[in-house]
Amino acid sequence: MERSVEIVVAGEVQGVAFRWQASSEAERLGVMGWVRNEPDGTVRCRAEGPAEAVAAFVDWCRRGTRWATVQRVDVTDVEHGGYGSFEISG
After folding, report:
1. How many angstroms separate the first and last alpha carbons of the chain?
2. Range of the domain at 57
3. Residue 26 near residue 56, CB atoms below 8 Å
4. Helix axis angle, 51-63 relative to 16-29, nearest 10°?
5. What is the CATH number of the domain that holds 58?
6. pLDDT at 88 over 80
């Protein structure tokens, strides 16, 4: 089963470092999607792929850096992945 999540991460996560780490971990896990800085100071991630890989990515976000705090995780089961890679923006 494919799963899609949207994750909002707060803390000292703006800039390149957290986004780069998140995209590297997503690629390692085989998760597709994007990660970007938001104007309110949070970072938003969208990840899509096999349920186990997406769950592992969410776990990584929860413990990824000592400065990051996951504020929200929205999970959706999907039939078909819509992303072809993991993109960093913002």
Report:
1. 30
2. 2-89
3. no
4. 150
5. 3.30.70.100
6. no
Q: Is the pTM of this model over 0.85?
A: no
- Across the chain, mean pLDDT equals 80
Our measurement of the distance from residue 41's CA atom to the centroid of its chain's CA atoms, rounded to an integer in Å, reads 16
Polymer length in residues for the chain: 90
Q: Which residues are catalytic?
A: 19, 37
